[in-house]
Amino acid sequence: MEPPPAASGGLSAADRNRLQQVFLRAKKCLERADYAYAHDLFSQCVAEDPGSLIYLQHFRANLAQMHPKTAAAKHSAFSGLPGFGGGRAAVSKLADKGNWREAFTAGCKALKKSPGDVGVIAELGGAAGELGHSDCQLYYLRWALDLSPTDLDVNRQAAAALEKIGEFDQAIGCWLRVQQQKPGDEEASRAISRLSVEKTIDRGGYNPQLLKGAGDVAMPHTGRVAEASARRKYDSPDAEREEQPAEPPQAALTEEELRAAIDANPADPAAYVQLAEMFSSAGRLHDAERLYKKALHVAGGGDLELLEKLEEVYLNRKRDTARVAEQRAQRQQSPAAQKLAEQAQREANLAEVEVFSARAERTPGDPRVQFDFAIRLKRVGNFREAVKPFQAARADKKRAAEAELHLGECFQHIEQHRLAMRSYEAAIAICGEGEWTDLRKLALYRAGVLAMGLKDLDAAEKYLTDLASADFGYRDVSARLDKLATIRKTG
């Protein structure tokens, strides 16, 4: 059994590029209404990278086009039909064995025939949660609740998932729906009481409406501020002020007014951007991300500034989730909470790899972007893949020494010791004689320690002595010099 790359610590660059090509073909199929083939292609993306929210969103959007009536229907209309239920059992059986890719493949196949099967959707959500993909887990559960808002099992599952990421208000909401359907349920009562105590924890940036059905969300009034929106063109925000310098500054629009502006002119990205910025400032990062995506779409998809705003809010959401999990782990001091915190941090790190990989592909000639990408690869332990972008980053003279130092550490991790030594020596040379920066000290230390490991005692003594002459208390440099002296005496 071979787990999907995402379950093993992230996709390789080759797999990521291959899947991206599959995804682009799927989007073209969706655009020309070839929904069945698009479903198969999107299914491949979801199965091989179950942590990609973008792949999952497109998978669901295509499925809604294949079965428009089912997309708007409730689960109760389908639950009694033949064929429903078997798909969930197949997914569950495969997931229990750890056959993750096969489980997601089976689930996607089942939904192609039975798009309203809440059981399959919830089971896929559970599998995403097992792999640590909380964003996708919540998306599956929201999807299931859109179809069946009062489903007891899905609400319980959603409550547990929300509690894990510290979204206690939303978890209470799920338990309240259970209580409404099953008055006197002791589990629901206990959970509501317990979670009420936790409500003071900082929020992690998740949309409070995340797991509510569409019917639960109040819709704004429309058509009130079309002229105000038209004056705030995204492509020229200062144009109006230049033409009419005497006009007093306009008050910031409210959320309701911005929603009305979007309804009045859905092809103008300005209001989407302003509302996204408002949500981002308020910590509603899921909403902000959704609006930046829409703004990017209506702007034609080629606006790099918008794309980077979208990427940043996505990363901030991941970082906030990791922060909340870490705070909870520190408070609870339990192995389970610590494991969740580590998982959230790992997911945040992988999200950074994903984003900076895309940026590096967009600007292959920018050494600063290559450096940022390489740092993220190194952080998640992809030392071999980090070598190439670190080498490209050396073109930035201001960071050349730092890039060489990181490069040496990567080479050392993959046991290319001679190459590692060359990089450490290059870092030392770039820093220059007499410049006792922290970077030069670390490069001397790394070179000395590596030389000891390679049994090159002369080189080890030279580097460590140079370091000790400037900072005798640096790490364990004095002890290493003593050890070198002992080796020479006894050798």
TrEMBL record:
Coiled coil (UniProt feature): none
Domain of life the protein comes from: Bacteria
Residue ranges with Basic and acidic residues bias: 229-244
InterPro entries, sorted: TPR-like_helical_dom_sf, TPR_rpt
Chain intervals for the UniProt region annotation (Disordered): 226-251
Protein name from the UniProt record: Tetratricopeptide repeat protein
